[in-house]
Amino acid sequence: MDDLVTARLVLHPMTVSEAEQVVAGESASGARWGPGYPTDGDVSAARRFLGTCATTGDPQPFGNYEVRRREDGAAIGGVGFHGAPDEEGGVTIGYGLIPSARGNGYASEALRGLLPFARARGVTRVKGDADHDNIASQHVMTAAGMRPAGQDERVRYFEIAWTGTTANPDPHS
Fold this sequence. Notes:
By secondary structure, this protein is an alpha+beta fold. The protein is 29% helix and 27% strand. The chain has helices at residues 16-24, 40-56, 106-120, 135-143; strands spanning 4-5, 9-13, 64-69, 75-81, 90-97, 125-131, 147-151, 155-161. Helix 1 (16-24) crosses helix 2 (40-56) and helix 3 (106-120) packs across helix 4 (135-143). Pfam families: Acetyltransf_3.
């Protein structure tokens, strides 16, 4: 599968080998990791990806993507799906960046790159959530076109849904 490229980022589909390196905390020769990569969230996502690969096979295109800066190729986080679309065409997303990369709009940019990609592959609804006190993550989802969709005692839920069968790369439509 090819990389997804945005203005400043490359969303690289994670391979089993790369996920194993993330879990081990050891990059392959030539791989560039930003300071603090991988985070605990990246390791958790890589473990989930490896588990999926072991039980049902590679979930791509609905797997994990390593977020890399185009300017230097450094891995600065991850974005991806928690699995293939459900029977109604819905998926759940997750994302995270190393602390030094936060506050630059990278997470919103990565999510804006992933949403039309998902829609073009038949996804009808993308869901995500953020802890009540994680205002930055809530801003990421709204900046990418997702809207609040409820809350519980722990998190606020966000989603974007599309109707019709025509894929439209604009996540705001």
